[in-house]
Design a protein that fits this description.
Blueprint (H helix, E strand, L loop, with lengths): L2 H17 L48 E2 L4 E2 L2 E2 L5 E5 L12 H4 L7 E3 L10 E3 L12 E4 L2 E2 L19 E7 L14 E6 L6 E12 L3 E12 L2 E12 L8 E13 L4 E15 L6 H6 L10 E3 L2 E13 L2 E18 L12 E2 L4 E2 L3 E22 L2 E23 L17 E19 L4 E19 L9 E15 L4 E12 L13 E3 L6 E14 L3 E23 L2 E23 L7 H7 L1 E15 L15 E11 L2 E10 L2 E2 L17 E2 L2 E11 L4 E8 L7 E5 L6 E4 L4 E9 L1
Length: about 750
């Protein structure tokens, strides 16, 4: 869809919004400002008949449903009023869920910027918002059913596992204001909510099998049900692919099981376990010259990654009385990251050839990291009355102990297979990291009037990080302790029963990660005065629905990021070296808009039914992210495109639904120096050009039990890339995946 088409769609949305009457109920989620107490009905007669169990009733909504909704004012012990929130309803989304294509699944969230590196050696693609680093979602608090998925939220926040989209009921997103309730990340929180069993229902089996280009085979199978006081859900997912580039094949398997026991009307106990395993062949990065000639080539055949992931969680929900509910989750993670690869010191352009002296390849390097984390999160929600209004107080505590072991520089084999054994030596670096975190937080939703609410909040954080072990460099490990408060306040005002304005300001910070505590080379040092990066997020917006035809969210944001941590060149009496230090402040501001429009709903029902349903959508963000202090002052923040625009249409008629989506991302820079031309032949720095990608997906319900799906990713076969990297899994340019096809069949029993 062209830029002019986008402007026409935007104008039509605004015109419809201005002319249509409001409605009382939003189609997805809870209508802003809706007060359940206002709709209480008091029965005028008594029922003397004994209670009895009635047969379950299934309600089917007409399609298409709005894909994006907003989280209710209060849910699961968290206050969302006044915050920038989105909720993606998976059953309403037509996308390539069999390959978890993020730009289709999460692309409707305005400003979502993806690091599409899954085809180059990362276990999953990353996401970032508002000019923040999208690599492995390091600036976002990523969760599954409220449990952290990252290796170590406070020391190594990379996400190596995300659940398969076919297993999800919805995806919840809260922007920067999430820092008070979920943790300090600038980029907010993403919570993947899996499907679940239904009480007193027979076992239901769902199977989805698909295949596609480059040897893709995807298999998803799940069961769900409930009997008596028990409900259960589980899935098994497997995916293999030869890869679109040589040396980019992968194998992955994931499984999940949950069981919930309702002990009484007050007490519910749940247990869940997630296991994921993968083995990824890493094709490596490309130089600018090689990428221009053929982005589908690879010069690395001996690089491999595996990252087994295990997460277990125990949940206890206890309703003390009708006005108070306590929810506690204890989670344990035991995971690994295994890497065997050729040392990449020579860059992307250096060939991986045979050593003429030995007649073999040069030995590879072996790395191994292990993570063990235990976390407790407990939330108490209390409803009380003040000024003749119902008020909500949310209190919480978090405590976590994290341990990480890192072994690097192990002498590997001269072979090409996945081999983690050491040959003729030991580790060059063996390090032990750890962190202890404790946090107390509180938010109070104060309903001033039926329309106006104010939510002040505070969070107190304590963090202690330690590192010890040995490296080939004379290093000094200094434990670091931080303790300080974060504060914020949100405001929401309901203009009508289905529209509201909202605003929020909340402080955030980013801890000093383990990688910044230790130097890894003779020319790299760590500033002993290194400070934690701190700042705040500010949101102001207007959202709601109009006439059952239009859904919208228009907002502006401002993000202040102080004391960003990076590397810079320093000269002293001993010579020149690189130092990890606070390199300056950055300022991010912009506009985020989302519209969904059903134009056929404007016609008479008989005409609309005969024509089918059309859902036009536009997700647009403008982001200006710039350094304002330090040696890079005036430069744009790296990996921060100014415009991210996704526009498309979903058409539905009878059993057929299809979506065509255009994704435009403007250019960005691979480094803070804002180099337009490559500064070397390794492809690690330079411009990341803008690109547009077209995706088409369709789903046909053949019978109530069987569905067919098909689609094309990158329909126009655009050449693009989203990331340059200085090291893993490159170095160099990591090309985006070329045009590919897929088709599948699904069944429900």
């Amino acid at each position: 869809m062209s830029r002019s088409h986008h402007a026409i769609l935007l104008g039509l949305c605004v015109a419809v919004l201005a002319t249509l009457p409001s409605v009382s109920v939003a189609q997805v989620g809870t209508a802003p400002g809706h007060n359940k107490a206002d709709s209480t009905i008091t029965p005028k007669s008594k029922l003397n008949a004994p209670p009895r169990q009635m047969a379950p009733v299934v309600v089917a909504a007409s399609l298409p449903l709005h894909v994006i909704g907003h989280l209710p004012s209060v849910g699961d012990g968290v206050i969302y009023s006044g915050k920038k929130t989105e909720m993606i309803v998976m059953d309403s989304l037509i996308a390539n869920v069999g390959q978890d294509v993020e730009r289709q699944i999460l692309g409707r969230i305005p400003g979502a910027n993806f690091s599409e590196t899954q085809g180059a050696g990362f276990p999953s693609n990353g996401i970032g918002f508002r000019g923040l680093d999208p690599t492995q979602s390091v600036e976002v608090n990523t969760r599954q059913n409220g449990v952290n998925l990252a290796a170590d939220l406070y020391g190594y926040p990379e996400t190596y596992y995300t659940p398969p989209s076919e297993a999800l009921e919805r995806i919840e997103v809260v922007r920067g204001a999430a820092s008070l309730a979920f943790g300090p990340q600038f980029g907010g929180v993403i919570n993947y909510v899996t499907r679940r069993g239904t009480a007193n229902s027979p076992l239901a089996f769902v199977s989805a099998q698909s295949g596609g280009s480059f040897g893709l085979i995807n298999s998803f199978n799940s069961i769900a049900g409930g009997t008596g006081a028990w409900t259960y859900y589980g899935f098994l997912h497997a995916r293999t692919q030869d890869g679109w580039r040589p040396n980019s094949d992968f194998r992955q398997v994931s499984g999940y099981a949950s069981a919930t026991f309702r002990a009484s009307d007050q007490l519910t106990i749940g247990l869940e376990y997630t296991n994921a395993w993968n083995r990824i062949h890493m094709a490596g990065g490309l130089s600018d010259e090689a990428n221009a000639i053929n982005p589908g080539q690879s010069f690395r055949a001996r690089n491999w990654l595996a990252s087994p992931w295990n997460i277990a969680a125990l949940r206890i929900s206890y309703r003390m009385n009708p006005a108070a509910k306590l929810e506690t989750t204890v989670a344990f993670q035991s995971s690994d990251r295994h890497l065997v690869w050729r040392s990449e010191g020579g860059g992307a352009a250096e060939p991986d050839g045979i050593d003429p002296a030995t007649g073999r390849y040069v030995p590879r390097e072996v790395e191994r990291e292990t993570f063990q984390n235990t976390t407790l999160e407990s939330r108490l929600r209390v409803e009380y009355s003040l000024f003749q209004k119902s008020q909500t107080l949310a209190l919480g505590v978090r405590a976590g102990v994290n341990r990480m072991r890192r072994f690097e520089g192990g002498p590997g084999s001269t072979g090409s297979d996945f081999d983690m054994k050491l040959y003729g030596g030991t580790w060059e670096r063996a390090l032990r990291f750890g962190s202890v975190n404790a946090a107390l937080f509180a938010e109070n939703l104060i309903r001033v009037t039926d329309r106006l609410s104010v939510t002040p909040g505070i969070r107190f954080e304590y963090l202690r990080s330690i590192a010890d072990g040995y490296t080939e460099v004379d290093s000094k490990f200094v434990p670091r302790t931080f303790a300080y408060p974060l504060a914020g306040v949100g405001v929401e005002y309901s203009i009508t029963s289905s529209t509201a304005v909202y605003g929020n300001i909340s402080q955030a910070y980013r801890p000093i990660l383990y990688g910044s505590l230790t130097p890894f080379g003779s020319t790299l040092r760590v500033d002993e005065q290194l400070r934690t990066a701190r700042g705040y997020n500010l949101d102001l917006g207007w959202r709601g629905t109009a006439g059952g035809v239009l859904k919208f969210d228009v907002g502006a944001f401002y993000l202040s990021y102080h004391d960003r941590i990076g590397t810079k060149t320093v000269d002293d009496a001993t010579g020149s070296f690189l130092e990890t230090s606070n390199i300056g402040n950055s300022r991010h501001w912009g506009v985020e808009t989302y519209f969904e429009l059903d134009p056929l709903a404007l016609f008479a029902p008989s005409i609309a039914t005969s024509l089918g349903s059309v859902d036009l959508f536009s997700s647009l963000a403008y982001v200006n992210a710039q350094y304002v202090t330090g040696e890079f002052a005036g430069n744009r923040v790296e990996q921060a495109p100014r415009i991210v625009d996704r526009t498309g249409v979903t058409y539905s008629r009878g059993p057929v639904r299809m979506t065509l989506q255009s994704s435009f991302t403007s250019r960005s820079f691979g480094d803070a120096n804002n180099n337009v031309l490559p500064s070397s032949d390794n492809g690690a720095s330079g411009l990341v050009p803008g690109y547009t990608i077209l995706d088409w997906s369709t789903r046909v319900r053949v019978t109530p039990r069987y569905t067919l799906s098909a689609g094309v990713n990158n329909l126009a076969n655009a050449r693009y890339f989203t990331k340059r990297t200085a090291e893993y899994p490159g170095p160099g340019i990591l090309p985006g995946i070329a045009r590919s096809f897929y088709a599948g069949v699904g069944a429900r029993f």
